Amino acid sequence: MKNRFTRLFGYTAVVGLLSLSTACSSDDDINSPDPEPNPTESRWITIAGAVMDETPGNGNGGTVLYSISKENAEDPNYAINVFDNGFQVRSQRTARLQSSVDGSTMFNIAYGGDNGGEFSKYIVNGGDNFEPTGGLVNISQYAGTSPRWVKLFDGDKTGVAVSVTSPMVNDGDTYEYTRGTATIVTIDMENVEISNNISFELPLPAEEEAAGHHIFRLDTPVLNAAGDKLIIGTWMGKTDPATGERDANAYERLGSKAVVVDYPSLENPKIITSTVGFGDTSGYRSFNSFLAEDGNIYQATQRDPGGSHILKINTDNEYDNSYDFSLDEALNVTGSYIQSWRYVKNGIAYVMYTHDDAAYTSFSDRTQQSFLARVDLNAKTAQKVDLPYEPDMYFFQYQGFVVDGDNVYVTVSPVGKDGNIYVINSVTGEVTKGAQLLNEPGNHFIGVF
């Protein structure tokens, strides 16, 4: 057994490893890598775990990966000890992970630390065997050491990282405005090199800027159906004009916004605004916008005063304000908040969320208990999935869903407690318990890839 996070040294570590090597055969079976799956019939399933530092559930101690076959992922008698046996990804804090559609390759941009902004990719060989391939490229000179990025759904060819700076402008002692300046970097993931980068300002209407409104974060770019535009989610901020500090007062939020640029040139930025949603559209650590078969893009909102919405961006790259999908109404809750979600196909998506009446977690003073719902974007309906929910279920940092045919694979585990992989049939809604996930205090699982 390989413990990538051990703090023991010398003789103590050696004795521990020798003791583990003499464990019973059932433990050996649990911890041994899977045989290589038949690529025409199966695929790797990679489980990602986030390690705490001093605070349970924060994931700031790094990220580990461990891959198993799809057959073992579906077996409730199979157990995986990711945190003891996993491969430590290069990242000081929680890594920002992506995978190829077939699960054969993992992609990562290190988040924070000395190697922050460093893009790398690995061939998945099973167990803790992740083989570096293609070299490294560091984008920190363009997008900083903590860039936000996703891959495009273009055959695993391109990654897009985005960042924003938001300087305040004064005329002497008089506040004028705060304005975001965006940087976009595209990464050729096949050749591991930067393919393009650009920077530009993000001006809002003069009256909005004078009130202090600005774009202070970009995230989760998505390519439109024509392949000629990128739509990028935004997180809005507000400066208090009287103090020049972040506005802590109650204020009316602007309509949800997104930035549209030409692709692949990244030029001609345009800001579009929804009159249906009033939350942010940046997501957090996973995809937040998806292109569906109907040619439209569906985008979730967060911090929406009316609860999270799913918005539609049509083929003209404008918000379709005739489409109104309120998660509050669909689930009959208040204050819903979409933490992470994944579109599957045929209008069906799975949404991880919390809401006003959710339980308080033991490691936070906020209502963060998480739930999973099956959503029909066409019928604008949602139904909570039948899972073993606990107050410490926490999907806020969730990054990865596997979609394989009709099936969706997710990890379900409270912070610091064991859990399971669950396989959900997106057509029937049937839920099947899969492999056991062995946890450690304070740690949590952040996805499957």
Automatic annotation (TrEMBL):
Question: PROSITE patterns attached here?
Answer: PROKAR_LIPOPROTEIN (PS51257)
Q: Which domain of life is it from?
A: Bacteria
Keyword entries, A-Z? Signal
Q: Which residue positions does the secretion signal occupy?
A: 1-26
Question: Under what name is this protein listed?
Answer: DUF4374 domain-containing protein
Q: What is the organism of origin for this protein?
A: Salinimicrobium profundisediminis
